[in-house]
Amino acid sequence: MINYHQAKSILKKAKIKISNEKVLVKNSINRVAAKDILSPSNHPLGDNAAFDGFAINATDTKNINKKKPKQFKIIGSIAAGNKPLSKKVKKFEAVEIMTGGIIPNAFNTIIPIEQIKFYPSKQNPKSIIIDKQFTKFNHVRFKGSDYKKNQLVVKKGTIIQPNHILALKTLGIKKIEVKKKLNILFFSTGNEISNSNNIPNWKVRNSNSHYIESLNNNFLFNFKNGGILRDHHQKIFKSQIQKMLKSKTDIIITSGAVSAGKFDYIPSVVKQFKTSHYFKSVMIRPGKPLLFAKINQKVVFGLPGNPISSAACFRFFVYPFIENILELLPEKPVKAVLKNSFNKVKNFTRFIKSKLTTSNNGKLEVELLKGQESFRINSFVKSNVWAMLPDGQSNFKKGQIIDCFLPNHSNKILD
After folding, report:
1. What residues contact residue 244 under an 8 Å CB cut-off, 6+ apart?
2. Which CATH number among 3.90.105.10, 3.40.140.10, 3.30.565.10, 3.40.50.11740 corresponds to the domain 22-43+146-178?
3. What does the pLDDT look like over 234-247, one tens digit per residue?
4. More exposed terminus of the chain, fewer Cβ within 10 Å: N or C?
5. 61: left (phi > 0), else alpha (psi -120 to 50), else beta?
6. 349 and 283 in contact (C-beta within 8 Å)?
């Protein structure tokens, strides 16, 4: 039996290759940028007004003061979306301009509308009265001040989120290159598994497939439910692996039948193929009966049948494997202060259903919930993070800082 770090090292070395594809920006949510995305143009495209007001040339205000005011003739009006003013501008002239309007080359500063004095009146404005000096570039949004042409917008390996889509569409980017989604084929196993709502006490409802399918957008994969493999379906499972090797399926995940029982045939069937980077059983809880094997450029994960064990193994083994294939940077744990002490077996890594909260003074705190047995789903519902207690330590004391991971999303959404 290997430890958690050894298992993760094997997964990292077992990386399979996937290709890229171009998608419309509007369809790129939760996809991974396969290349750096650069701005195709400056943003803003031109110098424009940050306020409604009047544009003037600040150098025209030299020597102007309250004793020597000056009238600046109003020569037009510029709204956002209007073509830039093309007429020749003379000294002591001004143009009305709205927020976002392109500032003509002859002008270099904006006076907000609230500061304007009109002549002869506000109702019949012919000029504005300037009675002080102005400096250049007041309330000006400069061309390229947000993004310059060819400046990095989204880094390779970034999971595209709505804020990225806003930026990409603002910059006029229609399509981006992303990593293709992995295709996962999932099988539940066991005669006890049932898809019925009403079951006798010797049956178990099929929940694992629904849980993992519900994660497909959050964890960047396409999901196909292959159904239930019964206790005598060794040949069917073998044929499914053979089909995978010739299909677009990248990963087969099974739930159950990976331990050492009479009907736990997943390991024996997998070993009939030429495998590499194989392991079975890891020193973790929940989820000790866990299998991984690479077969050519395909892989098989054998997860435990217990729902909580299956959820933990997906989160801490399948997801890091997907993350590596998509060339994401490893996610960073959330650091939190432990609210209650906990003892565990020293050589095992524990994934603990936990509740992350913020204290009155703003510190992140984590409570390790009661009901850590792998069959208990009540504590999983109450939890909002997995706390990870690493091997090499038995006693974890209140006040200690530990690592936490979101259960149903990547921590990368917090980056």
Report:
1. 185, 252, 298
2. 3.90.105.10
3. 999 999 999 999 99
4. C
5. alpha
6. yes
